[in-house]
Amino acid sequence: MSYKLLLFDLDDTLLDFSANEIDSLNKLFQQNGYTFSDELFRLYNSVNKQLWTDYENGTIALDEVLNSRFSKTMLKLDKIVDGMEWENQYRELLGNGYQLIDGALEVCQSLSVSHRLFAITNGITKTQLKRLKQAGLYDFFEDIFDSQSIGFQKPSKAFFDYVMSHIKDFDARDALIIGDSLNTDIKGGLMSGIDTCWFNRTSQECPPEIQSTYTITDLAQLSHICTR
């Protein structure tokens, strides 16, 4: 199959969000007078994941995710903090982090010569744009679609319908979604009739109900799929 339109997820597909997240959280807690530990990260991660799941299921708004995750985390430790203020600090720290996944720059440079590249992300508009520019990836993309601007998030069909309707000369047969998340990127592609490439760099098991068109463990493998 020959593809012309490549729809890239960003976090943990091209940008190493996990590394950026740990670094930013460490700085955030330190500047607010707390020691950041593995235990505290596990607590925050549990609260944060549940809030994002609720958001992706459409039961809460994005603002609630962002402005309550730190206050809810600290409340479990019997500490009261200003969740919105902490979020603003975290957002600033996160926006200054632009660690790349191995091979991301090279793949984007190579494929942008022969393909049209687009970014599709559930991240925050201002943060993602800043990170893409700092990482040197921004100019490779024809357009960047984020859930905050669109008002819908992956994997909802409404998100992908918006993307498809805002790409000139879009044809699903020419498109490929590349992402690390089975529940957002791959599931979203399946529901929208677009081929998918699962970036499985952590060797996860794929459930039978979510089958990606392709699976790769290294971004360098993408070139073979897209240029065959």
UniProtKB/TrEMBL annotation:
It holds the Pfam family HAD_2. It comes from the Bacteria. SUPFAM superfamilies: HAD-like (SSF56784). Keywords: Hydrolase. GO terms for molecular function: 5'-nucleotidase activity. The keyword Coiled coil does not apply. This is HAD hydrolase, subfamily IA. It comes from Desulfosporosinus youngiae DSM 17734.
